[in-house]
Design brief:
By secondary structure, this protein is of the alpha/beta class. It has eleven helices and 19 strands. Helices cover 28% and strands 25% of the residues. It is globular, with a radius of gyration of 21 Å. The structure holds flavin-adenine dinucleotide. Flavin-adenine dinucleotide binds next to α1, α2, β13, β17 and α10. GO terms for molecular function: oxidoreductase activity.
Length: 401
């Protein structure tokens, strides 16, 4: 398979240091040790309870309804991985459970969005995703609680889409990586020692220096700071996203994760629901504090949209809410995976912009291949490489939520 050209001149490397142990860093550590137990893998994670990590604060959902073959293929592998997680990540016979619920996504379209929905659906079907296109009448028949007045079509994931325990996924990957021999260090990376085209050491706040043959930047919303330690600018910024957990007397039979044409989403969470949306660009500066939640967004945008789409949601109550950061790639809202042309032994796996949890398994597998083989072996992720940013070739994924 074609992949990043072998100008990297990497071979099997003895010491890999991963900065950040969220879903991306832990998946990379797991696949590295699984594929080659001779490689030493050190993950440096400053927040081992994951109190601020996006992986623990997300909506923890997976879908196949993307508009590019690569995004779909990454999620197809994601669901395959999640379905078999007990077997793959068991430690000493104990199988982790992430409570995967394949309740489906329901993407809704108004007349102006129908052509795109149909085009995406054709691609998803061609690649083997189990998505059904529904016209207005079938939407109403299948989801009788839905207001379809302004809709013309919808696309529903019959299987392969749904939600799970995101924190559980990170813990399961981390524990398995550790069981396979990866070492986790609770410390803050504060500097990278760079000599010419190579990073030779990773320095932490406790004054330790970890020598490395390869370093991976898996620092999530803080990736830009870590990249800057290597003298590299990556267009990834911390953009706060709030989630609201609401209770309601509404009884919504077979409720999926619904994506309204406005971008507002909701899904069941036990007997309650969670919901959210992205703020408008003028209200979306970098680095807003995580201990605050955007209540105005709920009052002004989310609730009115929910009540319009599902009249039973006129009655609902916010039970609790939280915020996490999208590690937002302002260039094209998709992951940047691979090396930067100026530094040979530094791999980036950043900027997932709201769909990184589901892309964790495919990213871990791909990055481990890049490190161990100098190229992608299974799924070619080179379309997500750093080059596209430097050459101004956006990876256009129409279904970014
Ligand atoms: C509200 C919300 C909803 C979301 N919903 C979904 C969804 O439904 N489906 C989906 O697929 N994705 C979703 N996402 C996106 C997903 O959560 C992220 O893309 C994914 O978790 C990114 O994983 P990560 O490992 O890169 O980042 P993180 O989980 O943030 O891990 C990065 C880690 O790096 C550590 N770190 C940073 N800098 C340093 C340093 N200098 N030294 C040491 N450690 C460091 C941090 O402590 C952190 O733990 C959502 C995100 C949010 C915020």
């Amino acid at each position: 398979m074609s992949a990043d050209p072998l100008r990297l001149e990497w071979h099997v490397s003895s010491k890999v240091v991963v900065v950040g142990g969220g879903v991306i860093g832990s998946s990379i550590a797991y696949f590295l040790r699984l594929s080659d137990p001779t490689v030493s893998v050190t993950v440096i994670e400053r927040d081992p309870a994951y109190t601020r990590s996006s992986s623990a604060l997300s909506a923890a959902s997976i879908r196949q309804q993307f508009s590019t073959p690569l995004s779909i293929q990454m999620s197809l592998y994601g669901i395959e991985f999640l379905r078999s997680i007990g077997e793959r990540l068991k430690v000493d016979g104990a199988k982790p459970s992430i409570d995967l619920h394949e309740g489906g996504y329901l993407f809704l379209a108004t007349p102006s969005g129908e052509a795109t929905l149909r085009e995406n659906h054709a691609l998803q079907k061609r690649l083997g995703a189990d998505i059904t296109l529904l016209d207005k009448r079938s939407l109403g028949a299948r989801f009788p609680w839905l207001n379809t007045d302004d809709l013309s079509a919808g696309a529903f994931g019959e299987s392969g889409e749904g939600w799970f325990d995101g924190y559980g996924l990170v813990q399961a990957l981390r524990k398995k990586a550790q069981a396979l021999g990866a070492r986790y260090i609770a410390d803050d990376v504060t500097a990278l020692n760079r000599e010419g085209r190579r990073i030779t050491g990773v320095v932490t706040s406790r004054g330790e220096t970890y020598a490395c043959d390869v370093i991976v930047n898996a620092a999530g919303a803080w990736a830009r700071r870590v990249a800057s330690m290597a003298g590299i600018d990556i267009p990834v910024f911390a953009r706060r996203r709030s989630i609201f957990n609401v209770s309601s007397p509404a009884r919504l039979e077979r409720c999926p994760l619904l994506i309204d044409p406005t971008g507002v989403y909701f899904r069941p969470e036990g007997a309650t629901f969670i919901c959210g949306t992205s703020p408008s660009p003028d209200k979306d500066p970098d680095d807003l504090p995580l201990d605050e939640v955007d209540h105005a967004l709920f009052d002004d945008v989310i609730w009115p949209t929910l009540a319009h789409r599902v009249p039973q949601f006129e009655a609902l109550r916010v039970e609790h809410c939280w915020s996490g950061y999208y590690e937002y790639n302002v260039f094209d809202q998709n992951a940047i995976i691979g090396h930067h042309p100026d530094v040979d032994n530094c791999i980036f796996a950043n900027g997932f912009s709201g769909h990184g949890l589901q892309q964790g398994p495919a990213t871990g597998r791909g990055v481990s291949e890049l490190i161990l083989h100098g190229r992608y072996v299974t799924l070619d992720l080179s379309a997500l490489g750093f080059d596209r940013v430097l050459e101004n070739r956006p990876f256009v994924e129409k279904n970014v939520v």
